[in-house]
Design a protein that fits this description.
Number of helices: 5
Structural class: alpha+beta
Shape: globular
Strand content: 15-25%
Largest sheet: 5 strands, mixed
Radius of gyration: 24 Å
CATH architecture of the domain at 58-156: Roll
Length: about 170
């Protein structure tokens, strides 16, 4: 009776052409077998917002798709619209939690404030192409980072989004 070790076929035996492919830099050789290192990175607190003292922050006016005010909030330079909306319980989804992999944080800005922002990159434009109710002044809320020049900005939420529910639950960001 043969032992299980003796009859075991390794991937290199099964696919001899793999011998000519150099191992990935993260590969380790353990007991003649290739294994991969596990990489990890530090935890990043996506969406963490510290509310400014009243009267000291940048004012953002959130409106619904019909122009009805939802809420005026204050935020700090460097905060993004998605994180601010979540901090103040404004219904802006953000299913991908700010990783630019969806269009559920789509917002519509007034032309005056849209022109004060840097141009959207290709990744953001690709996601905006999938947004419901796209306009010339549409942006992804996760990509709009506040500066002092944006104080008083009006942000309209579209009437609907695509991918509103993920696995039956809204994102908690």
């Amino acid at each position: 009776m043969q032992s299980s070790q003796a009859s075991r076929v390794t991937p290199l035996q099964r696919y001899p052409r793999w011998r000519n492919i150099p191992p990935h830099p993260s590969a380790l050789w353990l007991s003649g077998q290739m294994a991969h290192r596990i990489h990890s990175s530090s935890v990043v607190q996506h969406g963490h917002v510290t509310r400014p003292e009243p009267g000291t922050g940048i004012k953002i006016h959130f409106e619904d798709s019909k122009g009805t005010p939802i809420r005026t909030v204050e935020a700090n330079v460097g905060d993004d619209l998605l994180s601010i909306a979540h901090e103040y319980d404004i219904d802006l989804e953000g299913a991908c939690e700010g990783s630019v992999a969806c269009s559920t944080c789509h917002v519509i800005l007034t032309p005056e404030y849209y022109d004060r922002l840097p141009e959207p990159d290709d990744e953001e434009n690709d996601m905006l192409d999938m947004a419901f109710g796209l306009t010339d002044t549409s942006r992804l809320g996760c990509q709009v980072v506040l500066t002092k020049e944006l104080d008083g900005m009006k942000v309209a939420l579209p009437s609907a989004t695509r991918n509103m529910f993920v696995d039956g639950k809204k994102s908690t960001h």
